[in-house]
Design goal:
- The chain is mainly β.
- It has strands at residues 4-7, 10-12, 18-24, 33-39, 46-51, 57-59, 67-72, 77-82, 91-98, 107-111.
- The strands form two sheets. A six-stranded mixed β-sheet has the order 2-10-9-4-5-6, with no helix packed on it. A four-stranded antiparallel β-sheet has the order 1-3-8-7, with no helix packed on it.
- The protein is globular, with a radius of gyration of 13 Å.
């Protein structure tokens, strides 16, 4: 049973934008915090942004002011709006709730000219 489905990645030029979506197919979505993570080649997975059930948000310093996390409880979906993308944002992006579910496949984001 697939519970986490990420989508929306792609190839974008530096300075461009993308919006990622994360469908969380659980009955407790509305009461869980959900976070976006990313893993670049050869690096550990890192936390990018988190949103609580109440809508409070927190971001990694590297993406503050450029990325925005949001959620739609009716659609059981969390979004990551990414603006002014940089080559160092290139990674596979994953989402997960708190507490963690088995990880999904992620979605590849490549920032390159």
């Amino acid at each position: 049973q697939v519970q986490l489905v990420e989508s929306g990645g792609g190839l974008v030029q530096p300075g461009g934008s993308l919006t990622l979506s994360c469908l969380v197919s659980t009955s407790t979505f509305s009461i869980n915090a959900v976070a976006w993570y990313r893993q670049a080649p050869g690096k550990q997975r890192e936390l990018v942004a988190v949103i609580t059930n109440g809508g409070s948000t927190n971001y990694a310093n590297s993406v503050k002011g450029r990325f925005t996390i949001s959620r739609d409880n009716a659609k059981k979906t969390v979004y990551l709006q990414m603006n002014n993308l940089k080559p160092e944002d290139t990674a596979v992006y994953y989402c997960n709730r708190v507490p963690w579910l088995p990880w999904g496949q992620g979605t590849q984001v490549t920032v390159s000219s």
